[in-house]
Amino acid sequence: MDSIKDHCGIFGIFNSPEAARLTYFGLHALQHRGQESCGIVSSSFDPVRQRRIMSAVRDFGLVLDVFDNPDLFQNPLRGKSAIGHTRYSTSGSSVNRANIQPFHVQYRDGNLAVAHNGNLSNATGLRRSFSEQGTLFQSTSDTELILHLISQSRQKKQVDQILDALEKVEGGYALTVLTDNRLIAVRDPNGFRPLALGQLPNQEGDGGTAYCIASETCAFDMIGAEYIRDVEPGEVIIIDRKACETGAPHSEYLSGAYGVSQCIFEYIYFSRPDSRIYGEMVDKVRRKFGKQLAHDAPVPRVPTEEKAPLVISVPDSSNTATLGYVSECQKLGYRCKYDIGLIRNHYVGRTFIAPGQDSRELRVRCKFNTVDGVLKDRIVVVLDDSIVRGTTAKLLVRMIREAGAKEVHFRVASPTVVSPCFYGMDFPSKQELLSSKFDDVSAIGEWLGVDSLAYLSIESLKKAAGDAHDSPHRYCDACFTGCYPVPVGDHVTKEAYD
Q1: Which one of 63, 324, 399, 458 has the fewest CB atoms closer than 10 angstroms to its CB?
Q2: Enzyme catalytic residues
Q3: Both 208 and 248 in a single domain?
Q4: Confidence bin at 249 (pLDDT 50/70/90)
């Protein structure tokens, strides 16, 4: 994986006396989706003011650092409902404190908080329209637009205001919305971003079921919650007191003009392998990618008197695809052996780089190190989940050669990235993509310094994703094809979303 940053992680819970604390653990499980900042907003009843209030704790940093004081979960984060967010910015400045989510406001119908994962593809037009009306903005995040749309809706009921606002936005988004008496989960009509519904075991005296919402099911595992199902594309699940008592949350549905197009990169890289998204375990799908790659580009054949090629992963996101690749290569009759040739340092924070130093190389060396005794004098096949800019991959190849590898071959468990993403994934502009700088794969391989380079084909990607499911699923593969399922300015052709 090279130069792709994570999405955000969102979590919500309703009807639990430990709402904020469980949200903290849920965010901890989702930390891989964003490490820039995090926050929790809880809802409680204030006996002094005799009304419901919302309290927030938000800051830059990791979940463990921001919520390092246990007293925070007694005061101010009280109450039986809460939402949380861990952020990597795909829209809005990463150094602006006002962009830290969840956002919360007080308006004519009470308190309202929103945590958002994704990007609104029509954000520019919406912001321009609000600015012309004199609307003031406190952040540069497109999430704030959703709050303005809700507050300016002419609908009478709060739920209708939320539905009205969501009909005006486009793009990829998953939301948790907290009101004074409801938790609302939303997934855009295309289903770009994953979102799941879970429940906690009934506790005596808790007033019924406690429901939770999360970007990935690994958050449910952390708190001992049961996965119920995915939130469907375009579904708006409304959880209130009645839903907890009856065990039946109510759902509304948003209209969609472009069908379902779930982000395939969630399977390739973003989600944890122990999560279930889009109805299937990530680990299972990644292994399928690796197996298909073995058919597209197996390990090189070597004489029987030579040692078998060594296959190593770029940890951690390509680990399971590598296992699938090795097992299928062996099944196809290719000699190869899986081993650990790269070690990843999981405790790399913000590394200080002195002026004049090659910051990219130092960052890579801080994050990865080679196991020289494993790689020396071996034919090494490196498997990564994707290549974007290629700078990290190039440095890793150099490090592996410095460790004494006789040959270095590179295999990628996804197709060539040819286009940027406008639905919540921080891909660089087309000009920054490695594929835009070279005419073909062999030229890219020469620049990387490898003996051979091969990618998973688009056809094999689709086959692997389809084979992993019992029912057909449609995915967004715009970053590999340039065909965008939802119009984004001049970047979309008609055939992309017919």
Answers
A1: 458
A2: 8
A3: yes
A4: very high
